[in-house]
Design a protein that fits this description.
By secondary structure, the protein is of the alpha/beta class. It has 2 domains: 3-113 and 276-291, ATPase, nucleotide binding domain (Nucleotidyltransferase, domain 5, 2-Layer Sandwich); 125-271, ATPase, nucleotide binding domain (Nucleotidyltransferase, domain 5, 2-Layer Sandwich). 34% of the residues lie in helices and 21% in strands. The chain is built from 8 helices and 12 strands. It has helices spanning 36-54, 94-101, 110-121, 183-187, 189-196, 208-227, 245-257, 278-291, and strands at residues 3-9, 13-20, 25-32, 59-64, 79-80, 91-92, 105-109, 129-135, 139-145, 148-149, 232-236, 269-270. The protein has a 5-stranded mixed sheet with strand order 3-2-1-4-7. A 5-stranded mixed sheet has the order 10-9-8-11-12, sandwiched between helices. Helix 3 (110-121) packs across helix 8 (278-291) and helix 6 (208-227) packs across helix 7 (245-257).
Length: 293
């Protein structure tokens, strides 16, 4: 039974795990995301101890917050690049892990990793194309086609698309430091908190915020339908766990589609099949791919 060292690297916490090739999480730990040397050092120390207890590792996988360098032909492969997170800009993530263990390292964004995991073992299993969206501290998305992440010059940044403003939401400028009222600037967890002083799940069920956020997310779903027509759109992340949000997104996506797209069915917008493990199992998928010829 092969064992893999897996890191789901988030802006708030790292989830580090020892995972079998069958997807069984043997052990895991949460490490607060502080400064790079401290956080990566703690992850390496934990993995070394876990490998000592359970057996040697075959490869490592890192599914990380971004922006990140994902092109192996470029010098910034394995790095966090232009992130606004203090202290993490131009941080080498893959290098220290690879050097500590002398093993192959798979590296991609957290959403691309989660998309791979959902494609192989979760809600997108058996589908040719899926999109995975995460709604949380940030908003991001990844696309998998025929079992492989879709990359261009770099990874996608779906959370930074412009959206049509809800008429009831005109007074909020948005919080994105780059674009103001892009999707992430309007519908991420911090944007919701800045606007209404509470998490979306803590707002009363009749609060207009539920419909406003659902409408913005539905716009991204319809943009994906228009551009790539995925077989599944999977929506995860902390904000997505708000009761009733997924149903509201489906309803608004169905309205916005206006019957135009052949075969579109809002029921294709679903929750992750892997629950809260999509990110860590995404790192597993990246680690396995790092061993592929």
């Amino acid at each position: 039974m092969a064992l893999y060292g897996c890191l789901e690297a988030g802006g708030t916490k790292f989830v580090v795990g020892l995972v079998t090739d069958a997807g069984e999480i043997v052990a895991s730990v949460r490490i607060p995301t502080t400064l790079p040397d401290e956080t990566l050092g703690a992850a390496i120390d934990w993995l070394q101890a876990a490998a000592g207890d359970h057996g040697p590792l075959s490869a490592l996988g890192i599914a990380t917050f971004g922006p990140a360098g994902i092109d192996r032909a470029r010098r910034d492969w394995g790095f966090i690049t232009s992130t606004p997170k203090p202290g993490w800009r131009q941080t080498d993530m893959a290098g220290p892990l690879g050097q500590a263990f002398g093993l192959p390292v798979g590296f991609d964004t957290d959403v691309n990793g989660a998309a791979l995991a959902e494609s192989r073992w979760g809600a997108g299993r058996g589908e040719r194309m899926l999109a995975y969206l995460t709604l949380g501290t940030g908003i991001g998305g990844g696309i998998v086609v025929d079992g492989h992440s879709l990359h261009g010059r770099t990874h996608s940044e779906m959370g930074h698309i412009a959206v049509r403003r809800d008429s009831a939401d005109g007074g909020f400028a948005g919080i994105c430091p780059f674009h103001g009222d892009c999707l992430e600037g309007l519908a991420s967890g911090p944007a919701i908190m800045a606007r209404w002083g509470r998490a979306l799940s803590d707002l009363p069920s009749d609060h207009p915020g539920h419909g406003i956020i659902a409408g913005y997310v539905a716009q991204l779903c319809i943009a994906l339908e228009a551009m790539v027509s995925p077989d599944r759109i999977i929506i995860g992340g902390g904000v997505a766990q708000t009761p009733g949000l997924l149903d509201r997104v489906r309803q608004r996506a169905d309205i916005r589609s206006a019957g135009y797209f052949p075969g579109f069915d809002a029921a294709r917008i679903v929750a992750p099949g892997l629950g809260s493990h999509s990110g860590l199992l995404g790192a597993l998928a990246l680690a396995q791919d790092a061993l592929a010829p």
